[in-house]
Amino acid sequence: MPTLLTIPRELRDKILSLIVSPYVPDPQDISDSSNRAILDDFQSVSPYFHGDNVLYIEHPKQTDTASLLLVNRQLHTETLDAIHILPTKHSYILDLMIAEEHNLWPTWLYAPALTTRVDRVYCQIRSIGFPTHKRGLFSGGCGGPPAMTWALFNLIERFLNVGPVGRQAEIKDKQFSIKELIIDVRTPDVDPELIAPERTPAMGSGRRDFGAYGSREKSASETPLMRHPKGIAIYIARDLKFIMEMIGDYGVNGGIMFERVGSVKVLVDGEPFTDSAWEEVVVSEWDVADVLAKMEYRGYWGDWKTSRWSDDQKREAYNQWVEGVYKSRVELGLPVKPKVLE
User: Fold this and answer.
1) Which of 47, 169, 304, 312 has most Cβ atoms within 10 angstroms of its Cβ?
2) SS3 312
3) Which residues, in sequence order, are CB contacts of 337 under 8 Å at separation 6+?
4) Can you give the three-state secondary structure of 100-139, one letter per residue?
5) How buried is residue 197: exposed, middle or buried, by Cβ count under 10 Å (0-12/13-18/19+)?
6) What's the burial of 264, exposed, middle or buried (CB within 10 Å: 0-12/13-18/19+)?
7) Quick one: residue 58, left, alpha or beta (phi over 0 = left, psi -120 to 50 = alpha)?
8) 89-126 pLDDT, tens digit each
9) How far apart are CA 278 and CA 200, in angstroms?
10) Which of 263 and 66 is assigned the larger pLDDT?
């Protein structure tokens, strides 16, 4: 009886190519979170970027590719050959569900070859389920931004440190980098009448019932609505803007994106979006090398620990950070541009 090792190499290569490029289907059910958990194995650089609202798959299933690599030397070599010729072997796809506006459920749909030099991460964001909790991801904090901000940054920071993995026995910074990060907010798969207007408040708590802008015209029990995808995209774009402009804690604690990301783009249903319904223009695409080259010292650097530093001390720390970022980008193969003199 023929086996995988006895069939012709050409046929075996076709089989291996199918095995090493598996796509996981989009999750649809949020009723069972037993295989997910808040991961406390990773220490963020920020005291705020905790993953309390991110339910990771704690122990992802081992792929068939990993099993093939362990069979014998021949299959190990041929499996690596199959991975090498994949056109998208260094591109990953992440599904990020906003579950009832209470938690983020990340699932890696496609990660064919584990590499620390990732060409592209495409992250689709889908809202599943109507808001049911008194305080949700978009609820404001005690003077700080909503939990959505911290949860999303935790997700990005974790990937740039350890990659698309579950709970780790020992955390070591593997220095992942992403040439292109695409965040695509999808329209919920519900009746259009159950989607809130595009122009709705960025923050809010409880079960959402959007009426006119800034008001609630009906009770939550009468008409629960789901947040408009463009509203979510604008919210995310504004958070990224704060990082790119190095505004307060956003910039300092989110500085890892300057070190390890080439470009960032926010889309709605796969397309660039307009923001005509909002009073201010929201930038949704960044060439990080260009942003870094044009960045200026703004008189603030550090966190609460350095708040009493003199301006000269802060400027020196800022200049050292910029020098380190340029060095990191060169080492990781990310584009750099000459610094524009202030």
Assistant:
1) 47
2) helix
3) 289, 290, 292, 293
4) CCCEEEEEEEECCCCCCEEEEEEEEEEEECCCCCCCCCCC
5) middle
6) buried
7) alpha
8) 678 889 999 998 889 999 988 877 678 899 999 999 99
9) 10
10) 263
- Residues 240-287: tens digit of each pLDDT: 888 888 776 666 677 899 999 999 999 999 988 876 555 555 678 999
CB atoms within 10 A of CB 315: 14
Q: Which residue has the tokens 């955390």?
A: 171
Residue 254 is classified by DSSP as: T
Structure tokens at 206: 């409880």
> Which residue type occupies 158?
R
Select the more confidently predicted residue: 184 or 249: 184
Predicted TM-score (pTM) of the model is 0.82
- Dist. CA 215–CA 218, nearest whole Å: 9
Neighbours of 31 (CB within 10 A): 6
Tell me which H or E stretch contains 152: helix 147-162
